[in-house]
Design a protein that fits this description.
- By secondary structure, this protein is mainly beta.
- The protein is built from seven helices and 55 strands.
- A hairpin with a 4-residue loop joins strand 39 (about 435-440) and strand 40.
- This is WD repeat domain 75.
- Pfam families: Beta-prop_WDR75_1st, Beta-prop_WDR75_2nd.
- It is found in: Nucleus, Nucleolus.
Amino acid sequence: GSLNGKYKVQRHGLYHLNFKVVSWLQVYSTRTEEWLHSLQGHTNQVTGIALNPANHLQVYSCSADGTVKLWDFIDGILIKTFIIGYPLFAIYVSEKHEGIVFLHIGFQLVAVHLPKSAEQEVEAKELSAVSSHISPNPSCTAFGREGQYIAFARNLQLNVYFFRKQKTYSFSLKATDKKGAKNAFTCIACHPTDDCIATGHEDGKIRLWRNFIHKKEYTYSTQHWHHNAVNTLCFTPEGTNLLSGGIESVLVQWQYGTGNRKEFLPRLGGSILHVSASSDGQLFCTSHSDNKITVIESSFKVCGVIQGLVKGDAVLTDLMIDPRSKALVLNGKPGHLQFYSLLRDKHLYNLDIVQQEYIYEAGLDQFEVVKAAFDIKGYWLATVEERGQKSSDLEFFLKLWSYDERTQSFVLNTTITAAHTDRIISMCFSSSEETTMLVTIAEDGQFKAWCQEDQNFWSCDFVGSYHNLKPTNCSFSADSSLLAVSFQEVITIWSPDTWELLTTLCQPPGVIRDLCFGRLSCSKYLISTTTRNLLCCWNLLTCFPVPPRMNIIIIYSAAMFVFKPNEPRPLFTHKNVCSEKIHRAVFVPREEPLNNCDESSQWLNRSQLYFLTQNMDLLTFSTATEEDRMLSSSTRLVIDDSVAVTPFYLLLGKHRQQQQKLNTPSHQAADRPQQPQGSLLHTPAHVLPPASVLCSMFVSSLLISNTGEMESSEQEMNSEKEEEDSEGEMEACDSQQELRAQGSVDEVTPKLSKAQERELKRVRKTDFSWMAGLIDSKP
């Protein structure tokens, strides 16, 4: 991401029903940590962003779609699109090279001259190669002092390209030194005012290179604190400090020119992947491997955290929905469960399950949360944490958590240290609202039922097995009157009230992998899948297999099939859901059913399907109605860059252009002032000009223009002249009739002058309807 003093711009991506990657940039406030708006326009993954050196309120973005876009990220407006034509992997800018951006295309670093044009989209044709030995890691390329040179490293070689000389100097390191350290370059940063290059290496060392202007007289000094590879380096704008970060999740601040004097900010979260500093040096920002951004003051105090969906090494639990908060629950930071709001697209909190400090060191065996389950009311949560791969080294705990209304979180109620003699495979809660029961199955060949005692603690109520076979899964029926436990290729049906074995069902070839009872009208069906990719639907009233009779989702690798009731053929199929293997999936109930859905999308009316890939990407299906609503709500203004982007233009200029195009139904409607529809009212208050500046312009936009009044008065004068001419013609014809009438009347009525008649006609035409409201309002 890129950071200026008040805003943080972050790359983001989302997948829709057509599985076309729609990537955008998200803008956050560093003070409130709140999301402000998104910058949408790229059609493929956003691969790099950089602030415009000529305007700190603008940002460049590059994408794999082959375009570079210039944004006004304050107002969320796309200014211009430059078409490059090649997939782009990184972007670099320099104040000295105005109008030029440096792009990472393949393994080449290319300088692109951005053409000046009034068109919204323009093709950039002036491309010149700088080097063909660029590392695929964008952190291994950086501009030097005032843009005089650019440094880039790859493997064991450091290269410095001087723009004035148009020469490249190369410096190499050995694969290992005498102590066996790894010298490969991992990141690079250049001092802003001094000829010094800082490089990070796999062994955790930081080297400061000097005198590289003379190829044979270069020197470097070594600083070492990180015990693993250095992931990122960054100099502060003044060059007084150097920031470094790595897998230890500790931000280290080295004082430049003072040897090994340094400060530490530990326990920031996941591994630090990137660090940046604001232009005034007051804020630092770190991005982490767990999808988190930390905002840090220059005094080395954390002042803000922007947390997305926490990404770990793997999701060992299922995707679950908290019945209370409707949040998505899965593995979060090590030893925790995360609660994520899908409706608000916001991370809620982490629940510490292991309750031990996690040590960020590769190869260290530590406790991890592997299983979790909620009861139907969301009052109880069961978790399993374990450590060790082999049975001889295996340690695991079964924990039950109760929801605390006071703290609005789960608190530990019971810890069971020896729930089974071997690894727990699966567990589930009963669906009854009257009594709560937990069933666990393990590799020791047993399943156990756990119930609450009088003191509200949990204990074992029943232990069951079947012919010494290994259990694979378990599920309660909708009313909790039946418990199904699968053993290899056999399904056993038990009564939880008496623990009587009611019947057994012989599954088709293959070990049973998944087991699930139907819901609502399909509660009499039991669905199972096998390791041979076979699905079987059992009717428990007849104990015979039947075709699928409810909406069932089957996901094989990256293919998905949806079955409709009473039809063995799939209702919906998608063989290439995504490029990665799908790992987990869950249905999320909707608050309100969708209307006007296509026939092929009827299965999404009452719930929405979310699924997770191996790379921890969360995807979802959305109907055409939902997608249209999302696109309409995220529409951004696109303007010509030749026009100054000011709130006055957005409020008045754009509004007046729209009003000129409107066809008003009558002259009276056209004269009525319209409410401005610009983006001024949607712009954050802290980026607007003072109210005193806006007031006069805003009021002026509401007034009726004088030109309309002048035209109406001229038309009225012309009509009066025509009336005078017609009256003169009628006077001669009616003179005799008037004399006869005057002779017959004793008292002659006083005659009005022409000016008085015109004034009387004008008064008659005046609209006094506004007085009706005053008359009606009187008591």
